[in-house]
Design a protein that fits this description.
about 325 residues; alpha/beta; globular; 7 strands; about 10% strand; seven-stranded parallel β-sheet
Length: about 325
Amino acid sequence: MTGPAWTEDALVAGVLAGDRRALARTISLVEDRAPEAESIVRRVYPSTGRAASVGVTGPPGVGKSSLVSALVRHVRGLERTVGVVSVDPSSPFTRGALLGDRIRLSDHFLDPGVYIRSMGTRGHLGGLAEATLQALLLVDASGKDVVFLETVGTGQSEVEVIGIADVVLLVLMPGSGDAVQALKAGIMEIPDVIVVNKMDHPSAQTKLQEVRSIVALDPDRKRRPRILLTDALRGEGVPELWEALVTRRAELEERGELAERRQRNLSGEVETLAVARLRERVREAMVGDAAVGAAVERVTRRELDPLTAVSLVVDSVTGTG
């Protein structure tokens, strides 16, 4: 429960007023899947959709957090408020803790115009996707102008999480090949903007040309992202990067694609989260429903075919049996 200090009404009012403690408390409730969390998100949802969201992804170690920190500093210089949601879908160790170069974001912890939240999986990717979406909505509802959503990798699961952002920034560095391979394999769609960080590296230009050659394969010139060089630690190229992100979002909005993208992303999230919820119920049925458990055992003994067992599971989950 929220306790005497934080009633549901107080949390709703606090989030909408931009109160950092109310926002932090509510996101914790979301992560814990507390029953009142859904009600709070439902009540603040009409106040969402105003923030510009930027997804930031790329392989570990390329300097994403340093780049996000530099972008936050630049955006704050433009007198806009910022939220940062850092997501780690893969590590069983961090549990959402600020480790490694992510500690650079701590430069902004004392800035009242910046809210930073780091989230871990707690063992369930589906739960993380749900918690991340709700956290993003809550930060949006709190009145932040810009929200950065950062993930640690470029695997399929991270791409699904990052897909709820308005525009996506892919961060690479000289010598990293996995994200380029992901682009080649089509695992992730062409992002809106690509940066090669650590621009002073001897092979930075080589990486830039390699990425350009892949991007040029897209026949739709409007979709081709801008590709830039940056040095996050020194802040070089950061103003140009921010301008590229703003320009791409404005282009999408002008063509009506931003609204379409948001609608598609939210629709996809509803489907993804619904499937995740159903998967949990199926697992619960296979463990807690004696008839379903017996049917699965009969499948392993080849006394019952799998499709019949599936029908029993579906009937148990949906209550139609």
